[in-house]
Amino acid sequence: ELYDLCDLLGFFVIDEAFDEWENPKNKWWRGHNVYPPKHEGYARDYPAWHAADLTAMVRAHGSHPSVIAWSIGNEIDYPNDPYASPLFGEMTGNNDANKPVAERVYNPDRPDARRLTTLANELIDVVRAADSTRPVTLAAAFPELSSRTGLLERLDLIGYNYKEHLYADDHVRFPDTPFVGSETGHSRAAWRQVIDQEFVAGQFLWTGIDYFGETVGWPSHGSQAGLLTTAGFPKERWHQRRSWWADRPVLRLAIRPVLGELDHHEHLPFSRTWQAGVPVQVACFTNADEVSVRHGSTSVAMAWDEDLGCWIGTTTAGADPLLAGARAGGATLRDEIFPAGEAAAITAQEWLVPERWRHVAGDAVGDDSVHQVECRLLDVHGQPSRGELEVDVAVSGGDLLGIDSGDLSDTTPCRATRRRTFDGRLLVHVRGRRPTVTLRAFGLAPITVECTGPLAAGGQSRPHLTREAEPSVPPDVDARTGARPGCV
């Protein structure tokens, strides 16, 4: 089903077989580089099963047009984990600095890194025997060394994880082989490496969506590296990246506290809410050449920041809204951020399949149909509110499958019947032919959503509000996003 969905949506898939080969890699079960590690991977099965499993993967997925390449391994060449080389002493970036010294120097008792080349060549032959039409690649963790031990020589596509600064020099040594960012961060610099060099095919961000695991510590139980939360809600960095590559005009305002030297840290998140009297950094994500921003009647000086890839200014948040204007591609763009008030109403809608995918999604709505209901808290002006509330969910005519807010520090079980909003939002999953979902929060009128099916109303998403619970939303405000006309 995942591959079918990628085919449908036009996603590019690099189908990857292994995370380790014949020797185990360290698994950091207590935190990154926290000793002792565990060894729980494919290595024990590799000798007997690698050829059969790799062939089975290629044959099973070879009919999917979304698959553009076969990867034979991810970070198999991570330095000293466990393969070693005497060249380590001549390399930079050969390991993480917080590991013990013994883990960062050459140890002749470890398996020789040149063994990886022998194994890679065998795997390449296995793939080509099953499918000669797609390129073979791998995701190299330590190309400083691997590009000199023969590991990359027979690849059709060279993948580097977080080593974009090596592209230009290594292209001189591999002039006929394209490169790809098989795993990269979100920085503007990493993106520029792709668009400024024709031999770099693209980049795969780590990561597109937040995920469970690899967390900073309890109660957080997941990684916040994504452009989207686990509930599928876009973060501001989604809009930031959209302004870099989208063809259609983009204009999006966002803010964050002024924190001195951390202002340019790529992981310091932007948001759309503020507290009056607090100095804030204003960001404008746009593909327009120029932008103007006003805070009430005061103009906010904006300057392009190449490191962040957006326009940046500062102001002190007050009672007046922020207003941005620009022109791009012949279109006049406008966006506003209003000071958020306390929650005054719940708005909700069922997510519906867009029109352009209806012909392949099918029209049937059965007892096993899954519906997604998006919930958002609004203030008295119809804007996204500040503050979070616990929302009770009741389902009739179907089953509640789970509730997600995207808050990775919320340890509430997903199948609980209540959950606290995060950034004023929740996503409710229900199963049934036409279930009814009722949402309640303390102090607010309840709201009921009648799920009519993922393809209802021509695939156009719309709010489902009961008459008595309809919030006070100005007619020019989108009840789901809080956006006003002209926003993109």
Task: Produce a short descriptive summary.
The protein has helices spanning 2-9, 46-61, 115-130, 143-146, 167-173, 188-195, 236-245, 358-361, and strands spanning 13-16, 67-74, 136-140, 157-161, 179-184, 200-205, 211-212, 222-223, 251-257, 279-286, 291-295, 298-300, 303-305, 310-316, 322-328, 331-337, 345-350, 370-378, 390-396, 399-404, 418-420, 425-431, 436-441, 447-450, 462-463. The protein is of the alpha+beta class and 488 residues long.
Give an overview in words:
With 488 residues, the protein is α+β, with helices and mostly antiparallel strands. The chain has 8 helices and 25 strands. The strands form 6 sheets. Strands 1-2-3-4-5-6 form a 6-stranded parallel sheet. Helix 2 (46-61) packs parallel to helix 3 (115-130). The relative contact order is 0.08. The model is unreliable at 457-488 (pLDDT under 50).
